[in-house]
Amino acid sequence: MARKARQRISYVLPLANSPGGHRLGVNSVAVDGKGILYTAGRDGAICSWTLGVDLAQQNTDEFIPRLAPAPSVFRNQIQAHTHWVNDIVLADENQALVSCSSDLTVKIWRPFSQTLQADTIGVHSDYVKCLAAPGGRSNWVASGGLDRKIKFWDLNGGGETLQIDVGNEGNNPKGSIYSLGVGGGILASGGPESVVRVWDPRSGKRITKFVGHTDNIRSILVSDQGNLVLTASSDTTIKLWSLTAGRCLHTLSMHNDSVWSLCSSQPGLEIFHSSDRSGLVAKTDVRNVAEIDEGICVAVCQEKEGVNKVVASGDYIWTSTSSSSINRWMDVDTNTGVGTEPRRPRLASTASNRPRVPGAPASPISPTYKRSTIPVNSLLRLSTSSAFPSNVRDPDAVTVYSMASARQASMAETLMETDMVTVPMNDMPDETIEGQHGLMRHFLLNDRRRVLTVDTAGEVVMWDLLKCVPTKSFGKRHLEDVAAEINTVDSIANWCQVDTRTGRLACVLEENYCFDAEMYADAAELGEGLEFKDDQRINLGKWVLRYLFSNLIDQEIIRDEDYRKKLESERQERDRFGRDNAPGQISLPPPTLSIQDSGGPRTGGSAVVTPLIKPSNGGYLLFPPTPGLGIGLATPAPLHNSNAPPLSPNTLEDNGNRSSIERQGDYFSAPPKSGPSLGEACDDLPSTPTAEKEKEEKDSSLFGKWRSFGTKKLGRSASTDMGSKPPLPTTDEKSSDQAVAEEPAEKPNPMEDTLLGVVNKMRQMYGVHLREHPDEPLSSGITPSLPNETPVLKPPHNTTIIVQEDKPDSGGVADLYRGTVGCVGQDVDLLETVAPAWLGDLLLQNRIPFKDTVKISFVLVPWKDELPVLPSESGRLHSLQNEISLALTTSSEGKNSRLNANRMLRAKKIMAYIAEHLQPPFMTNHGPEFSGEGEQPKAEDWLELVCHDQIVPITMTLSTMRSYLWKTGGDVVLYYRRKQSLIDSKEASGTPTDGPLAGEGSHDDNEQRMSIEGETIQ
Asked: How far apart are CA 37 and CA 50, in angstroms?
């Protein structure tokens, strides 16, 4: 049987004042041509924006002033993924947007529908890095990832249609897919193997491969005719390949850093944009040239960070970087000529240098003009063989300026007189769509409840994982400095996993560890008005889950009440129907024959009249069988007709080797020759469910199988001659073991491991209760934890809740449910089918999975023999036996006791144990003065523990002692003694130290507690 998929619960804490927009870097952008921009980022979100520009390209050489367009407006946003979104692509005539992510999923979102939810259409077994979709009404999309596979998915939910194994079943470890390109009926792929492979998307067979790059291939474009392939690589080059010639036509080297992105709207790829890791965006135009080296390449803009994706539409281009903002730039018209005047660079040439305000509108736009010429120092050299570099020193090399037909004789002189540095055409972006500040790093404090985070602006904030809210801001400081200031000395078991990979604080809970951590109620900062038992502990996982799903519990209680009312009404209806149709009297049929008629015994002079039935063979049987009740199966000694002949000696000899039970006439005994036994007479009648169940249970056991095997050999018909041995069976009989093995195993119901399975079990118990106790009312089986066990929490309603399931076959997780605290009550039907059963047990019945208590061993030793050694247990009962168990009595020397206890046991409990187990004279000779009236002094008032010469605070747990005081392996050694502060005070007052210690009642416990927590023994 396949391993059961493990499920987990995640909740994401909401950020304050969270407007639309990305909070981490943007990895991909797409424009649909109708004025809508789509962006996808590392925060797992996909945003759409309405552009305020006309995307119709204007081809004119005139000086036309361009009025400031309206700023881009946020449309909507979906949290599509739980990890980085690596790529997006438009499909189905721009009606669908497909995304791929490091959460291993490929999803589709239809932005023009009413839903703001992305549907999963496929899953990889590793990070999914790239997508490719053909144009038009094609209904498929291809995805590639680090699992070295290219998968084709049906956009209509048909699942995987084709798979290409680039890794060659593990023989190609560098076969990861980082880029895909599609066009002209072919698909091209590339990755760290530095090889471009061309595939047939219809059959999945490889057409050819191109070798020439020396590093990872990051982007691929394919012409509409399918004859040209353009690739960009981390080796800083762009190569143009010919599928017809089967070789590389040109190598372009205008970039000085790893080339990350390519885009083109031309069917033949004559004009394309490229971007690199240094932030440079270049535009290349090779139209109307004899050789590609004669084309023109212009530096369009320069970002402060590497450009992950560039896309062009109309007269504009959009760039995405590791910043949460998206910049729009004016494109360059390469139809214009090259000017003789070099362009001077400006300081602060990008919008990245300007401070950003979260939530601020897009940057203002001033009227601009299209340039009439391209500055000479904005040109880039296409390749090493190009005749026109951007910093030409040789005047004879200046042959091409912008187009093959546009040359200027004075260009050479201009280049000779200037020492040019490449200056992009655009100093500043035309518009900046501002992003928000997201969380980058986190630090979980020792109490396992508070978390410190730092966002992209450098602000440090402290969060409460239980209340799901930020509690304090520390401003722009170093995270480590703040952690050192506020961290506590605690050792709490890990109960959650915390991450900020999507720019928000997420907490992941799994069944195997989420119930391991506990916190004392007096340290939980619950406020006033709440009363708890002394040293009561609260389970952190149970606490937070109880109130994340509080609305779900309320709905289940309402449904449970309705269901119980329905059962009560059905029971009342059955009772009323039964009383209304009950007959006035029951008449029995007249007996056909009695025991008296057949020569049976008499009782008290009167015959016992018992009806008999007459079988077809002429014999009579007592007790006519009741339909539906196999009474004969439960009768070990069937009564036969008194006229039946006795057994012959041969029959006795044949049956002599059987057990005594069989000789008494049990179920397995042979029937008499004169007629069938009572058991056989009832075999054809339906038996009771109880009898059938008992028979199945017998047959299922080892001995039952042997009995079943024996019955096949001993089974005889009524006409068999008992004096002769029965013939061997002629049919092939299989053993019982083979028969059991061949029976199909009952498939487990997948709903049993869900919340619905917990609900169904409760409802089955209701039915059992009604049958066994029909007169008692039904009480609810839902018993959630009460506020005295889990104090009330009120997490924000927009706290995101995610139910995920491990995918053992793919190595990742899949989202089964995504909602919020406020909507889990409305999604009760969906949650019942996807929420795990362990969550249902916790929410509805307050049960958590059983785990052995983690205990720590320790040794109690008197400090410098000032106090007596603790005596042996010797069977003594005490009030702390539930807390401390004696692992070993006194040692051979009788100087210490080795014990173990729950790792959360506090020091004051150990002190109480010591005080309780000291000999009675101790209280008069060494203990505090006690008159015998009123409340006895507490152990922590006159005792203290010492570990490694440090006084142990009374609220410190054994786990914390081991981690921060003992700091080594083996048993923790704790020394106990009288409080030094009390001894010092008595010495100052002249009171003998070996007598009773007085004045304890006048000391404030809080003051004493503070005085010992920071004390160190010299």
From this structure: 6
Is pLDDT above 50 for 1013? Answer: no
pLDDT of amino acid 75: 92
pLDDT at 6: 85
Sign of CA dihedral 562, 568, 571, 572: negative
Q: Which residues pair with 845 in a beta bridge?
A: none
The DSSP-derived string for 475-510 is: EE--HHHHHHHH----------EEE-TTSS-EEEEE
d(CA 975, CA 944): 8
Residue 837: C-alpha distances to residues 486, 497, 848 (Å): 38, 21, 11
Q: Which of 232-241, 597-606, 673-682, 890-899 has the lowest mean pLDDT?
A: 673-682
Which phi and psi angles does 26 have, rounded to 5°?
-100, 125
Residue 948, burial from CB neighbour count under 10 angstroms (0-12, 13-18, 19+) = middle
Which of 457, 458, 454, 453 lies closest to 434 in space, CA to CA?
457
Alpha-carbon distance 724 to 673, whole Å? 12
Mean pLDDT of 314-319: 92
Measured distance CA(782)–CA(398) in Å, rounded: 86
Among residues 453, 321, 483, the alpha carbon closest in space to that of 12 is found at 453
Written as six digits, the tokens of 720 are 């068999």
CB-CB contact of 843 with 555 (8 Å): no
CA distances from 572 to 253, 582, 810 (A): 88, 15, 53
Q: What is the pLDDT of residues 553-577, one digit of tens each?
A: 999 999 999 999 999 888 888 877 7
For residues 335-373, b (16+ Cβ closer than 10 Å) or e, as one string? ebbbbeebbeeeeebbbbeeebebeeebbebeeeebbeb
Question: For 493-573, where are the E strands, in sequence order?
Answer: 497-499, 506-510, 518-520, 537-539
d(CA 663, CA 900): 61
pLDDT tens readout for residues 507-534: 999 999 999 999 998 888 776 667 778 7
289 and 295 Cβ atoms separated by less than 8 Å: yes
| pLDDT tens by residue, 25-47 | 999 999 998 889 999 999 999 99
Higher pLDDT: 650 or 12? It is 12
Q: Of 401, 434, 308, 221, give the one whose Cα is nearest residue 26.
A: 308
Secondary structure class of 639 (helix, strand, coil): coil
pLDDT score recorded for residue 936: 72
Mean pLDDT of 306-318: 94
What average pLDDT does the chain have?
A: 76
Beta bridge partners of 327: 319, 432
Q: Which residue has the tokens 């239980």?
A: 466
Contacts of 421 (CB under 8 A, 6+ apart): 345, 377, 391
Compute the distance between CA of residue 461 and CA of residue 437 in angstroms, rounded to an integer.
Answer: 13
Q: Which amino acid type is present at position 57?
A: Q
Say which residue the tokens 């390209």 belong to: 57
Cα 539 from chain centroid (whole Å): 21
Nearest to 433 by CA among 98, 47, 15: 47
Cα dihedral across residues 538, 539, 542, 544: positive or negative = positive
Residue 814 burial by Cβ neighbours in a 10 Å radius (0-12, 13-18, 19+): middle
- Which tokens belong to 225? 């005719």
Mean pLDDT of all residues in 753-769: 92
Tell me the backbone φ, ψ of residue 796, rounded to 5 degrees: -55, 145
8 A C-beta contact, residue 663 and residue 655: yes
Q: For the range 998-1005, what are the long-range contacts, defined as Cβ-Cβ under 8 Å and sequence gap of 24 or more?
A: 998/928, 998/929, 999/929, 1000/928, 1000/929, 1000/937, 1000/941, 1000/942, 1001/937, 1003/941, 1005/938, 1005/940, 1005/941
